Amino acid sequence: MRNHGWQSILVLAVLAALAACTTAPAERPERELPARARYMPYMGPSIDSFTWLARFDGWEALSDSELIIFTGTDTAYYLKVWAPCGTQGLPFAHVLGLTTSVGGTVISRLDSVRTQGMNCPIAEIRKLDTRRMRDEARLQLAEQTGSASDSPPSADVAAASARQE
Description:
Blueprint: H1 2-21, H2 34-39, E1 43-47, E2 49-51, E3 58-61, E4 66-72, E5 75-81, E6 97-98, E7 105-107, E8 112-115, E9 118-128, H3 130-144, H4 155-164
Antiparallel strand pairs: 1-9, 2-7, 3-4, 4-5, 5-9, 6-8, 8-9
């Protein structure tokens, strides 16, 4: 009986020591990547869900807990997960997946980003305005390459220019 009491104390001491040494992922400082600043001006309002046809054309990590999912040539979504995703965060993920609770629909606060054997619940979804981003990039490229040439600007560049005025 006496030995059992010491075992309990020893187990509690070991658990307390382990708890003191661990850091919860949410307490780690957030790493933001330069790509984040490039995408943030094109974020739409927060939405509850989007339809996903079980494939995406690519993804880009913006921080340990934020990423852009490209679901088509003109469609992209910003996803923020509850805590840094994976053991080192999204920038170090090699493989990425999404869960869908309701047949092909990804729902904020219900579905997750999956990476490295972890499910990271989605806290926020925003649609990226890829058309405006592309138009502004074309306009900036035209300005950098000397749009002072004699040829008139293309319809895309002219439309982007008109929106900015």
